Hints:
This protein is mainly alpha-helical. It has helices at 18-34, 39-50, 67-81, 86-97.
Amino acid sequence: MTMEKKHPEYKIPDNPHAKHRYESAMKHVDHAKKAGKSSEEIHAIFHKIMEFDPMDIDSIPTDEAHKNYRLAVIHAKKAMENGKSSEEVHQIFQNIVTGNAKGHTKHS
Length: 108
């Protein structure tokens, strides 16, 4: 008789970006599994993403896979600093992440 270990359920924190971080973490977990990472490595990846502070731009990887995300965070942070509304900031972020941004912006 084999005892199958049930994976503990993760409680998503109650904040506006937690669901997105969770979805991102699960995407990274799937890639890690396909790459043959160990259970410990997969858990470390999951927790690193869930504890991630998006305003800490230096903690965002600079590799090609994270290029648009990093650029979107930089522009979103700058937009917040320039007084843009939450909706405008999210739109700027989404446009860059999805590749729908047009032209260049001037930051003052």
